[in-house]
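Retro notes (design track)

What went well: tokenization of the new backbones is finally stable.
What didn't: we kept losing track of which sequence belonged to which structure.
Fix going forward: every design gets posted as structure first, then sequence, in one message. First example under the new rule, 481 residues:
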């Protein structure tokens, strides 16, 4: 037997095996790379911050009750909502405030930054400043692009160039960045924002979501990014590095539904009125495109009246929008049903006065737990016991609800499930009014529950969301002994 041929043949076999192993490894790495999830850029990375950093910002502080990781929140322009905790009683402060804090944690599922407050300074109320003393700003809102450039933007960037249709050119010293914007379609083409977002979700190398809910996808083989606003406006950010894009998104705003809820809905009473009728809250609202610009459509009903309001979004305006249409209509009143109603309430229930809410009885109810309640004790001498701890509960600006005006109410609190906490102010599930008088059973609207406490103090629960009916019926109001 030829030994040399045997050695040569063995070497050839070993070489084939090694080559096969290398090929398998390379294929596995390629396949893993193709199927890998895009890298998530966290809220702290977006702002170039780390746990333990000290920050000083101003904003609007609100109480959120004694929650697990924080007791208050503050609305900031750059970071959105931030959770606050402190050894000091933060209830002593009213907005606007300047807050110094240390970043303590991030609640990952909602990307909420929680900070430990080291110092709070009360600032003068901006409403007390004379209009003549207010400086003019060069803030710009480009309606056909749906992008807002606040005053702070111009400290770092030049004037946005909008001469080329569909393109905004931004300069920063020697650098130039192009933002291509377009109206979204639904035809699975290169302007179908939902289709593009679905595609980029699978192929993007990096992704991040801003505090206002804008998600940005990085193209895997280029310094370009895609984003869209509620599938209404689409955007491509071309030839811009990750660092520069993150810096830019900290300086510009998009009127997303989340930011509109925070910046426009609180101004409904100023925006939606015709001099005789005023819209105090929103039952339903939605962003839409009209005449190639962003609008907000709002509906509200009170008693037999139904109101609709249409706003054009413009963050450069005082109330962040301008009214284009406000219509109030008298709803149909079924006299026969009105005649039957007294028969249904002949047997008045014992206190508290509870009448069924006008919702389909098949609506799935919010889960309650009488054994593990959430108890809120007010400094005004009463305690509210809620049949669940899975809630967010906070005082809100009193809106003088005309439906129960005869009860002489003077304060209100909002409640939502904890998961819906960002909608606490603008889209509550339940509103609790503190009033001076009780309402008689035959005048109590169907969505309201009256809890008389003592002479001169009555609580009225307004059930907005039908799934909270059982929850509202099991609220307990008591005096502090």
């Amino acid at each position: 037997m030829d030994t040399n041929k045997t050695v040569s043949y063995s070497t050839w076999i070993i070489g084939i095996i090694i080559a096969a192993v290398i090929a398998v490894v390379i294929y596995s790495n390629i396949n893993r790379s193709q199927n890998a999830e895009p890298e998530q850029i966290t809220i702290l990375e977006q702002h170039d911050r780390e746990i333990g950093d000290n920050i000083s910002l101003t904003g609007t502080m609100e109480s959120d009750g004694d929650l697990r990781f924080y007791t208050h929140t503050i609305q900031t322009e750059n970071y959105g909502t931030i959770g606050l905790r402190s050894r000091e009683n933060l209830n002593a402060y009213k907005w606007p405030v300047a807050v110094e804090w240390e970043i303590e944690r991030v609640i990952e599922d909602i990307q909420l930054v929680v900070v430990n407050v080291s110092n709070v300074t009360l600032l003068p109320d901006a409403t007390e400043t004379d209009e003549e003393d207010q400086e003019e700003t060069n803030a710009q809102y480009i309606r056909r692009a749906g992008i807002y450039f606040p005053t702070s933007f111009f400290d770092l960037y030049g004037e946005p160039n909008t001469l080329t249709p569909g393109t905004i050119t931004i300069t920063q010293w020697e650098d130039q960045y192009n933002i291509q914007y377009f109206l979204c379609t639904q035809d699975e083409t290169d302007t179908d924002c939902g289709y593009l977002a679905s595609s980029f979700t699978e192929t993007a190398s990096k992704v991040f979501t801003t505090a206002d809910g804008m998600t940005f996808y990085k193209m895997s083989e280029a310094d370009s990014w895609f984003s869209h606003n509620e599938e209404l406006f689409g955007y491509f950010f071309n030839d811009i590095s990750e660092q520069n894009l993150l810096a830019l998104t900290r300086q510009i705003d998009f009127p997303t539904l989340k930011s509109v809820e925070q910046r426009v809905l609180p101004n409904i009473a100023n925006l939606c009125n015709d001099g005789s009728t005023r819209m105090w809250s929103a039952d339903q609202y939605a962003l839409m495109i009209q005449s190639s610009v962003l609008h907000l459509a709002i509906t509200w009903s009170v008693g037999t009246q139904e109101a609709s309001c249409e706003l054009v979004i413009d963050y450069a305006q005082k109330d962040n929008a301008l009214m284009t249409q406000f219509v109030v209509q008298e709803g149909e009143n079924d006299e026969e049903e009105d005649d039957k109603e007294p028969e249904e309430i002949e047997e008045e229930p014992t206190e508290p006065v509870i009448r069924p809410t006008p919702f389909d009885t098949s609506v799935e109810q919010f889960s309650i737990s009488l054994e593990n309640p959430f108890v809120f004790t007010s400094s005004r001498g009463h305690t509210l016991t809620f049949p669940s701890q899975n809630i967010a509960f906070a005082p809100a600006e009193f809106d003088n609800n005309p439906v129960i005006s005869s009860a002489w109410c003077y304060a209100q609190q909002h409640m939502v499930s904890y998961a819906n906490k960002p909608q606490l102010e603008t889209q509550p599930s339940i509103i609790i009014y503190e009033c001076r008088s009780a309402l008689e059973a035959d005048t109590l609207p169907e969505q309201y529950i009256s809890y008389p406490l003592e002479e001169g103090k009555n609580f009225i629960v307004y059930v907005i969301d039908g799934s909270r009916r059982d929850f509202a019926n099991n609220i307990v109001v008591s005096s502090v002994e």
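Added context from the reviewer: The longest helix spans residues 3-35.
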